[in-house]
Amino acid sequence: MGIEIEIGWLTALMFGSLMVLLMAGLPLAFVTGGLACVFLFILGDAQTLNIVPSRIFPLMTNYQLSAIPLFIFLAAMLERAGIINEMFDVIYKLLGGVRGGLAAATIIASTILAAMVGVIGAAVVTMGIIALPAMLERHYDPKIAMGSIMAGGTLGILIPPSILAIIYAVVAEQSVGELFIGAVLPGLLLSGMYILYVTVMCYADPKKGPPIPVEDRVSTAEKMRLLGNMAAPITLIFVVLGVIFAGVATPVEAAGIGTFGAFIVAAIHRKLTWATVREACMTTLKASAMVIWIMFGATIFVGLYVLEGGQEFVESTMTGLGLGPWGILILMQVILVALGMFLDWVGILLLAVPIFVPIIKALGAQAFGLGSEGDLVLWFGVLYLVNMQMSFLSPPFGYALFYLRGVAPAHIPMSDIFKSALPFLFLQIVGLVMCMLFPTIITWLPRLVYGG
Asked: Which residues does the UniProt record annotate as the domain TRAP C4-dicarboxylate transport system permease DctM subunit (predicted)?
């Protein structure tokens, strides 16, 4: 039999060694999986290693997860077909005449993009390549330009079809469709707050976001023609999300419809070639493989921790602090933001959610003034998604900051990119607090759609 280690020490050992190895730059998937196997062997015997297949197999056979490669492929096809560039171009020309119009256009385009693309890196990088040069050329304040690209890009985590929401629903064992619908209003709320902030800033100081010169603006007829160009991809989004919200299809079936639709849209835009399809397939393969490997590693790691009594340890520690239900919820949010500074989103989800969700359920819906456990789980799930959006923007290791660094002009220092994220990070905190204080922002739409 293996060694007995007291749970407090085990927590420090497991998570401490995890942090050290990640700081050393090793990939999360293999660190979590490898460490789990080492600890399994130290704590148990050869028999204990059976936990590895028993944790991985349910993920391999999970039907809901098949939506992930389909949504990634849908996004990759639209990107390869040049739809995203065209979309920014259209919104840019429609709003260019307004002060701060290009920054608002970037956020609107990112919001629409989020409804096409479940992954965040794509949106930040694409917008960084298209929108940043356009705004800097027009003498926009670089901080407003970069902030709106990063904040807009992170909406992909929240607005359906978010890949994170699919994985969350699988791990927390709840309905993907409900989580999608619950995330719509918070996503639009945040998007609206970003646009409002940018517009107010640019009207207060026109130098921050000057309108484009009159000679560069387009006529109404030209605007209508441009909108016509966007009809196919926008219709595709409405169809994909519409069938989920109407309850006609599950998210996986909707992803299938979307993937088929992406071929049609690419064909309409005369971009359906073997090269396009091949590149989209490669992107899908790499992204899906990364996600699923992280899931394998992290699920074994957490599985072992829970098996050794980690769940009870975390629960008793949190309740022992005498914080009350709201205090525990806020502490969880703080822990998630802290983790978000160091870990990647799939990792945080698989390490924190299996431990946090049972604690929240144990506190009960009444503690937060909610009607039922279903409401409680949905509310916490969407709060989690809003929180993850913050982790992408929070310095020093927010992913969005580095995605933008990769495509921003070399003369812009990293410190400016950090500074440009801060006002938007503040708006996200305001959004998170609003969703916590007014749960109906999250629960109203799912109630409307599903009734009850």
From this structure: 15-440
355 Cβ partners below 8 Å, 6+ apart?
Answer: 302, 305, 306, 310, 311, 314
Q: Model confidence over 299-349: pLDDT tens digits? A: 888 888 888 888 888 888 887 887 888 898 998 888 888 887 777 777 888
Cα–Cα distance measured from residue 207 to residue 233, given in angstroms and rounded to the nearest whole number: 34
What whole-number distance in Å separates Cα of residue 156 and Cα of residue 153? 6
Distance (Å, rounded) from C-alpha 114 to C-alpha 151? 11
Exposed (0-12), middle (13-18) or buried (19+): which is 16, by Cβ within 10 Å?
A: exposed
pLDDT in tens, 404-433: 888 888 888 888 888 888 999 999 999 999
Q: Which residues of 106-116 are buried (b: 16+ CB within 10 A; e: fewer)?
A: bbbbbbbbbbb
* pLDDT tens-digit map of 224-235: 787 777 787 888
Q: Nearest Cα to 390, choosing from 358, 450, 430? A: 430
| H helix or E strand, kind and range, residue 66 | none
Contacts of 201 (CB under 8 A, 6+ apart): 100, 144, 208, 209
How do residues 160-177 score in pLDDT, each as one tens digit?
Answer: 888 888 888 888 888 888
Residue 205, number of CB atoms within 10 A of its CB = 13
pLDDT band at 118 (very low <50, low <70, confident <90, very high): low
| Closest to 417 measured CA to CA, from 124, 84, 122 | 124
Dist. CA 408–CA 420, nearest whole Å: 13
Closest CA to 271 of 70, 72, 87, 82: 82
CA dist 446 and 23 (Å) reads 40
